[in-house]
Amino acid sequence: MKVIKDEGLPTRVECASSLKHVIDALYVLNGKWRLPLILSLMHASKRFNEIQHEVEGISSKVLAKELKDLELNGFTKRIVYPTTPVTIMYESTEYSHTLKNVLAELSAWGEQHRERIKESMRKQS
Fold first, then answer.
1. pTM higher than 0.85
2. Burial code of 50-83, b = ≥16 C-beta within 10 A, e = fewer?
3. Which domains does the chain have, with CATH numbers?
4. Mind listing the pLDDT tens digit of every residue in the chain (125 residues)?
């Protein structure tokens, strides 16, 4: 994890600007399922049931809504193949790949946090 040192505190304007950008990002990526769905689709294109199986705990109704929202925001693409029956695939877009570093940092932080909690629980035992 990159730690910024010796740069001093940001000005009030810089802080307000950064806060607006974070709020914008969280507005688009808000929710329990969006980042896991983006991550799931970054690995390969998938059908609806494949996504639901991979992202454990998500209901069909919530998955459908989240996929629509992600498509509206340009993170996923829905491809309909004219087969019998119709085949629908979902895939990530190039735009979703701009989150690759964010997801890597969140993963690293999550792993670090999990280990910290485990260590804390060991000390309490």
1. no
2. ebbebbeebeeeebeebbebbeeeebbbeeeeee
3. 32-124 (1.10.10.10)
4. 445 555 677 788 888 878 888 898 888 899 999 999 999 999 899 999 999 999 999 999 999 999 999 999 999 999 999 999 999 999 999 999 999 999 999 999 999 999 999 998 888 87
